[in-house]
Design brief:
169 residues; mainly alpha
Length: 169
């Protein structure tokens, strides 16, 4: 899913017509503290609870602003990750194509070749092996990296529930 939809996470106070979340310094500070990927869900829930308790007035609107900011920042982070994953995918296709071409060249040289042909076969085999190792390393990275957008989605969902609950109190 390329872009997160507020409706998938939020059924609290209306988001339409509220101000920009950046215009409220305390909301902007909360979003700035929670937005980095390294912030755990639990840490964010604690920060949200403390923030909600500190709001003397206009609580539902300011909590909706906080959600709006967290949604926007999570969406930005996800979009950057997805773009990187697409770039890595293109690189993987290139490596796969290179490995295929190297195999085709290797198959043209008999395994028992001698002289320059043997040297070329050894060079091609080393290049092929290096390309395959590189491909496999990137595959492992992709598996890990593909989990991050899902984790960001789950984190945002937990935070949205906490903000909505605080707005209803």
């Amino acid at each position: 899913m390329p872009k997160l939809a507020a409706a998938a996470y939020w059924n609290g106070p209306a988001l339409e017509g509220i101000d920009d979340w950046r215009a409220d310094p305390s909301v902007a500070d909360l979003v700035r503290r929670l937005a980095p990927r390294k912030v755990s869900t639990q840490q964010g829930l604690s920060e949200i609870a403390a923030f909600a308790q500190s709001l003397p007035e206009d609580r539902p609107r300011r909590l909706a602003l906080a959600f709006q900011g967290l949604l926007e920042e999570t969406d930005r982070e996800r979009a950057a990750l997805i773009a990187q994953l697409k770039q890595i995918g293109r690189r993987q296709r290139e490596l796969a194509g290179l490995a295929d071409r190297l195999v085709a060249e290797l198959n043209q040289i008999p395994p028992d070749a001698a002289g320059d042909s043997a040297a070329k076969r050894i060079d091609l085999q080393q290049r092929h092996d290096f390309t395959v190792r590189n491909f496999e390393e990137i595959q492992r990275t992709i598996r890990y990296a593909c989990e991050i957008p899902v984790e960001l989605d789950a984190r945002l969902g937990a935070w949205a529930r906490a903000l909505q609950q605080a707005a209803a109190e």
